[in-house]
Amino acid sequence: MHTIEKKSIKKGWAGANAEPAKEFPLTQLPILSGKIPDGLRGTLYRNGPGRLERGGIHMGHWFDGDGAILAVNFTVGEASRREGIATGVYRYVQTSGYEEEAAAAKLLYGNYGMTAPGPIWKQWQKPIKNAANTSVLALPDKLLALWEGGKPHALDLQTLETWGEDDLGGLTKGLSYSAHCKRDKQTGEIFNFGISPGLNATLNIYKSDPTGKIIQQAVYQLDGVPLVHDFVLAGQYIVFFIPPVRLNVLPALIGTNNYSDSLEWKPRLGTQILVIDRETLSVVSRGETEPWYQWHFANGYVDASGSVIVDIARYEDFQTNQYLKEVATGETHTPAQSTLTRVHLHPQTGKVTSIQQLLNRHCEFPNVPQQNVGQASGYTYMSTFRLGTDISQEVINAIARFDYKTETLTEADLGENRYPSEPIHAQDAQNPEQGWVLTVVYDGNSHSSEIWIFDSDRLDAEPICKLGLPSVIPHSFHGTWNPPQ
What we know:
Distance between the termini: 72 Å
CATH architecture: 7 Propeller
Largest sheet: 6 strands, antiparallel
Helix content: under 10%
Shape: globular
CATH superfamily: YVTN repeat-like/Quinoprotein amine dehydrogenase
Structural class: mainly beta
Number of domains: 1
Mean pLDDT: 94
CATH topology: Methylamine Dehydrogenase, Chain H
Radius of gyration: 22 Å
Strand content: 35-45%
């Protein structure tokens, strides 16, 4: 009797990451349907892991892939003052680690989910590679490719040529600059942080002027080495929710285990809260609440009563890290659902007064229009799953908008085997009341990538425009919209 071996069938999303991304030079993008809106002027930037293998060896976690930047610029064509055109360029960030590994045609460095090749006793001597793969910050004279474990890389805004690591006038040796900076549209100030590891980590907080130059810093001691990926700007406060994940330092330090697998879920620690005054960068209060994990915040603001309102994509535990590790393999099986959750916080005491689930649907990559960062927003845009999706086996396959006034979700269902990136809101250059939502869509049916543009008020309608891209863009993490200066 012969045993029939069952072959696992990979889902449609796996094709996007199956091969290293192919760069393309500045190219005019074909309009596949519809028309570019007249008031859509500016540049969409996106960042994400462009390659997950080198020399036949696969990287250990989705977070380990080399960063690749997509820029799509919307302008007015020369032939007509009315018709918009879009041009795109896609390039890897030329970090020193990327260049060394490309020259050697093999992996040389460890990273978040992998130890460096070679004997264990040499691991502690080897630095990890700055992957420059998580997000972007568009400044007046440069684009920053952000990665939370090191310094940002500066790139040319138009060509995406890599200029090298940038210390922003204040990142001394050993300091890192996280991937989730917050920019106040009204003042132009930019806030960010970095974690310096040790037996007890330090939290470094930065305030920058509109050019990105760091003008103020503060340093605070943390309990152990937590995983802090994001924070929130809320009115006059900067707020950190520090989840109960701690690094088991010794295995990570000596190289017997990678960083990701050395992270431990410790719910008994609860979620620690740190409220910082944005003017002085001094501590207003510290608090503690029930345990949860979040990668991302949607937004924060101070309401009329003086309470801080913070919206998060909340996970009940840390299984999300295992799920993200599996994404790099092309097959997932770990369920990890987060929900849009609102936290009410008394800033002077650090006490949480209520925790409310706003939506019983998966929520990731939540964000608000740039002009609403740090203040009340009528809407949050997010990535989610189509109804009926087995979330343990798929990656995000829909985008949506949550309306706080009506408590309703408007969803863009892109159809079977289509996978949108994080939705990015773009304010219309001619009419500030009009907005657009841009997303990069990988179509697993045709193994191709496109840009889809939606009316921000009609996500459930057909896209206003679809643009073709010259090559497949692997699933990415974060992006930004840079309006015309």
